[in-house]
């Protein structure tokens, strides 16, 4: 499910007003090159100055919302008396000036940069404490006023997917073994992205054409690179059950969105 709020503020442009951030973003440190990110975690905003914090607290008091209700405050809508048909979000500017941080396993991991109002709306919606999948591009960027003593690796947001609605389902028997040990990671290397994709899409991967589970219990997971095509990055995932019966599938992690390039099927090791 795409976390995109299409209710636009009539008084706001379609591109996020982060001019100063954009200028500084271009002054990037090439210590780490561009790379795809496919990570699982939580989104939360921080305010880099006391002045912004006080403005946000005043907005919370005005809207009669808790200071943790970021979406309710940023999305608060009002209409000017002289223009009753015009709907504006007076506190949206606070979301634009906030430092958006992506947290993995309770550790602040990335600073997020939306490039459009739709992406900013997605960040606002994601701040409701739901776990999400982050799809984006990462590079090391030094940004003045960023959260923390050092700038976190910065991700240009492409897409946020709500795992509650779109992918992850309640734990099944298969999640009690080896799959439960696959914790969310930073999602930068091919193996990391394949692992995150397996965790979030396992129920779809493990469903046959007759809608039955292919493997009913997983006690071991193994990842390995596959050299099939020079221009593709393929990770083979091998799943074993307690009887040592193995199944495998290929996950293509070449581009921003991983996908299963060969379906889960009985695994026969080549001689």
How would you portray this structure in words?
This is PatG domain-containing protein. It comes from Pseudoalteromonas aurantia 208. Residues 37-175 form the PatG domain. With 271 residues, the protein is α+β, with helices and mostly antiparallel strands. It folds into two domains: 19-164, OB fold (Dihydrolipoamide Acetyltransferase, E2P) (Beta Barrel), CATH 2.40.50; 173-266, no CATH class. It is 23% helix and 26% strand. The chain is built from seven helices and nine strands. The protein has helices at 19-25, 50-63, 70-74, 92-97, 117-126, 163-166, 190-205, and strands spanning 35-46, 99-104, 107-113, 132-139, 154-162, 220-226, 234-240, 246-252, 259-266. The strands form two sheets. Strands 1-2-3-5-4 form a five-stranded mixed beta barrel. A four-stranded antiparallel β-sheet has the order 6-7-8-9. β2 and β3 (107-113) form a beta hairpin. The two termini are 42 Å apart. Residues 1-33, 141-149 and 170-175 have low confidence and may be disordered.
CATH class of the largest domain: Mainly Beta
Coarse shape:
elongated
Number of beta-strand segments:
9
**Category by helix and strand content:** alpha+beta
Q: Could you say how many structural domains there are in total?
A: 2
Largest sheet properties: 5 strands, mixed, barrel
Please write out the topology.
Blueprint: H1 19-25, E1 35-46, H2 50-63, H3 70-74, H4 92-97, E2 99-104, E3 107-113, H5 117-126, E4 132-139, E5 154-162, H6 163-166, H7 190-205, E6 220-226, E7 234-240, E8 246-252, E9 259-266
Parallel strand pairs: 3-5
Antiparallel strand pairs: 1-2, 1-4, 2-3, 4-5, 6-7, 7-8, 8-9
């Amino acid at each position: 499910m795409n976390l995109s709020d299409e209710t636009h503020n009539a008084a706001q442009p379609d591109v996020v007003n982060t001019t100063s951030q954009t200028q500084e973003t271009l002054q990037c440190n090439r210590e780490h090159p561009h790379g795809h990110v496919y990570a699982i975690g939580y989104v939360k905003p921080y305010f880099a100055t006391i002045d912004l914090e006080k403005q946000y607290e005043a907005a919370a008091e005005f809207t009669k919302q808790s200071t943790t209700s970021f979406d309710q405050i940023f999305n608060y809508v009002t209409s000017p008396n002289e223009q009753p048909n015009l709907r504006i979000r007076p506190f949206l500017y606070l979301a634009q000036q906030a430092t958006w941080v992506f947290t993995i396993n309770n550790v602040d991991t990335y600073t997020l940069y939306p490039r459009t109002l739709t992406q900013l709306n997605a960040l606002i919606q994601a701040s409701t404490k739901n776990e999400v999948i982050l799809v984006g591009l990462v590079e090391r960027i030094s940004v003045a006023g960023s959260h923390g003593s050092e700038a976190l690796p910065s991700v240009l947001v492409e897409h946020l997917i709500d795992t509650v609605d779109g992918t992850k389902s309640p734990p099944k028997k298969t999640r009690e073994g080896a799959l439960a040990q696959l914790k969310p990671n930073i999602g930068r290397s091919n193996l990391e992205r394949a692992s995150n994709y397996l965790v979030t899409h396992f129920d779809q991967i493990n469903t046959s054409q007759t809608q039955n589970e292919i493997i009913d219990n997983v006690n071991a997971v193994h990842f390995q690179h596959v050299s099939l095509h020079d221009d593709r990055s393929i990770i083979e995932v091998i799943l074993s059950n307690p009887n040592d019966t193995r199944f495998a599938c290929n996950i293509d992690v070449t581009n921003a969105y991983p996908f299963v390039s060969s379906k889960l099927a009985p695994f026969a090791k080549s001689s």
